[in-house]
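Supplementary Note 3. Input sequence used for the single-chain structure prediction.
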Amino acid sequence: MEILLATQNEHKKAEIIEILPENLQLKTFNDFNFEGEIEETGTTFHENAFIKAKFGYDLTNIPCFADDSGLVIEALDGEPGIYSSRYAGTGSFNDNISKVLKKMENCSNRNAYFISVICWVNDQEVKYFEGKIFGNISSEISGSQGFGYDPIFIPNGYIKSFAEFSPKEKNIISHRAIALKKFTALLKNNYLK
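The predicted structure, written as discrete structure tokens, is reproduced below.
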């Protein structure tokens, strides 16, 4: 079965392909030479995931899923939230991390969670799958694995950042893995018989 992941982010594809069933052919926008930007005008992770999945399905006519993920920090009133990938306005995750660490310099409450919302769109249905992992924001960067805010996020029950996990370890507990496991169950039950 061929499905489209509505992204141009090869890091995201590499992480996701490890979790999905092997008998899927996973395509991304890069396979269709799409280089534009999808304007994420939603005000929630659900809305933005739908915008991307619907766009991908309309563009290719292939069943499509999109993930909208972000970091939600209690002390920053939920920031960066849906703006996680563009928080500093530069497109650089190093800048995004620096902005978070600067804003949290004097914060004792370092509670945060990562959330991933997957939206699945085809000619029959629209479905959502959600995953969350709770943790806290470290005061310094550590680790070189992963991407995004991984170097400053320490999941509850661990003493190392997501960027210090191997990809295999992260794929067992991450917010995206939780949402993908729910999505995979739908695919296996309804589409891969």
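The domain at 2-190 is CATH 3.90.950.10 (Maf protein). The mean pLDDT is 94.
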